[in-house]
């Protein structure tokens, strides 16, 4: 077997070249690198392809499998279409950071051991932070800092787990495990932090909407979905994931319903969708894992598409809140149509990608006879239509006439949105072609008349609920407190209080110490100092008669001699 | 409602909204009635009842909206809530 270099290196090289190259050369690099990466991804055979020494270990930077190629493919497609979407407006350093970030994600896909996984994991953390910072505002800088702290903290937990597993089992291989020991729990928690699982889901909705309109497209794709891949590789069938997933699904819906910022709505909906995948990994059957992988693939495309539409709207209008927007279908029809296709896909409407992938997860749950989970997933499917499927296009493109008459998206953004819309429909209409890429043999048939009818009923009546309940969903100029309140306010308050207390105690001690020092100085002066008049000399600086000293020496020597000889 | 210079888009005229609502109700009724012809093979028995998906979808959404609304009373803050800190720095 011939060894090959990690496919991620192509995008790393591209990220380095984006800076010095200008004009058409830069565009060429931006478009050619992901295409070359795609081609390379499909050259990676199954099994461990490359091994190399690293410190005292042998690491496996390239290991192939259908699952790994599937995730790497969608990451490369995302880099390509995201690059096309961004290249005319994004700063060169945002593009470079975005490509390095994508390289990290693709590196994780082919990591054969935990050390390689960790290195690429941290590459993602670093460059995604840069992408957040490229938002350029004070809010983006602050959010980027919180994002970096969260991910570096997650990285440390992951590293503790990886080292524990290495020390205790002697192997860094990536293989299925269950959270049964401290080490494996640390790995699971480290991955779940990146998946935006509770209680830290808030990092996602905090950071993504602060990036630039183009940056959030990149951000939506990689971090959470590499976490899903890592969960599929390391923790298939880990039961706790089912309930973590369900929590994420409901959390995403509820918080998105309360939200006013369009990109924050989409960010909550990322948590919601990743919840479906995490839940499926927890089920752990072949169909469930196929479902998780397929849904991740479809999700990256429709969520990228939705962030592109939101980005185009923000780029053209400068507004990002539902309360400022509305009625844009008049002048941005293409963006509106693409947004609706993305919204229908995320809702899992028949003939879109969400239907052919999400129902696979529901079917896997039903096959296991998990009735509660099944009903919760069905309710959540209705909820997705409510919070993203209708809410996003309705408040942006219809609702009221905001009076805004912006131009439609620039041509490159339009082409990127059309490509992703077409992919959403392709996966929805020709699922069999797409199913061939899945890791396990697939005999799931999405299009059965009864199933289609059930979902159409479910979704259309959710739509009815939306329009009847519209008065209850009037947008307000508010944000909703989340667990990030803990670290943005409470920890900060605790820190400030501690600091102030220490400072107060310190200043009191200092006053005391100064007073004591003053007293000591006076004492010393009284006893040691000399001045002009011999009577006021300190006791140690007076002049004593030599006879007195001789007498004291005799006394001391006598005492010494007595003690010594007795 | 009409612009003096040109009429607003067809989609937002009150007359068309009335038509759209009627059309929507018709589709909704059809999706339930279709169950008389197309059998939904449920996984747990009760999910093949006539109109189960419709009722379940509607009620779940109702509950989620009400729950969100109730939670919002505790969690909603002015949009400047965190920005104040930023300005202090």
Keywords:
heterodimer, A: 566 residues, mainly alpha, 2 domains, two-stranded antiparallel sheet, 3 strands, 3% strand, elongated, B: 89 residues, 3 helices, 56% helix, flat
Describe the structure.
The complex is a heterodimer of chains A (566) and B (89). Chain A has 566 residues and is mainly alpha-helical. Chain A folds into two domains: 234 residues, no CATH class; 245 residues, no CATH class. Helices cover 70% and strands 3% of the residues of chain A. Chain A is built from 21 helices and three strands. Chain A has a two-stranded antiparallel sheet. In chain A, a hairpin with a 2-residue loop joins strand 1 and strand 2. In chain A, helix 6 runs antiparallel to helix 7. The longest helix of chain A is centred in the C-terminal third of the chain and has 45 residues. Chain B is mainly alpha-helical and 89 residues long. Chain B folds into two domains: 38 residues, no CATH class; 48 residues, no CATH class. Chain B has three helices and one strand. The longest helix of chain B has 24 residues. Chain B is flat, with a radius of gyration of 22 Å. Chain B starts with 13 loop residues before the first helix and ends with a helix. The relative contact order of chain B is 0.06. The mean pLDDT of chain B is 85. At the A-B interface, helix 6, helix 11, helix 16, helix 19 and strand 3 of A face helix 1, helix 2, strand 1 and helix 3 of B. Strand 3 of chain A pairs antiparallel with strand 1 of chain B, so a sheet runs across the interface.
